[in-house]
């Protein structure tokens, strides 16, 4: 990691992909048999 970040930076970003094999029913009535959910966390925990 660099010693400093640009002033317009949101900080350290860590994307993580979570895979789900359990079907989920959508509000429109369609079903996804499996899906990936990508989440990003910003910064570091204390």
Q: Give the mean pLDDT.
A: 85
Q: How many β-strand runs? A: 4
Distinct helical segment count:
0
Distance between the termini: 17 Å
User: What low-confidence regions span 5 or more consecutive residues with pLDDT below 50?
Assistant: none
> In terms of structural class, how would the helical and strand content be classed?
mainly beta
Strand order of the largest sheet: 1-4
The share of residues in helices is under 10%
Q: What kind of sheet is the major sheet?
A: 2 strands, antiparallel
**Beta-sheet strand percentage?**
35-45%
Shape: elongated
- Total domain count: 1
Write down the secondary-structure element order: EEEE
Gyration radius, rounded: 17 Å
Oligomer: single chain
Q: Would you kindly provide a written description of the structure presented here, covering whatever features stand out?
A:
It is a single chain. The chain has strands at 13-20, 24-25, 31-32, 35-42. The protein has no helices and 4 strands. A hairpin with a 5-residue loop joins strand 2 and strand 3 (31-32). The model has no long low-confidence stretch (mean pLDDT 85). It has one domain. A two-stranded antiparallel sheet has the order 1-4. With 46 residues, the chain is mostly beta strands.
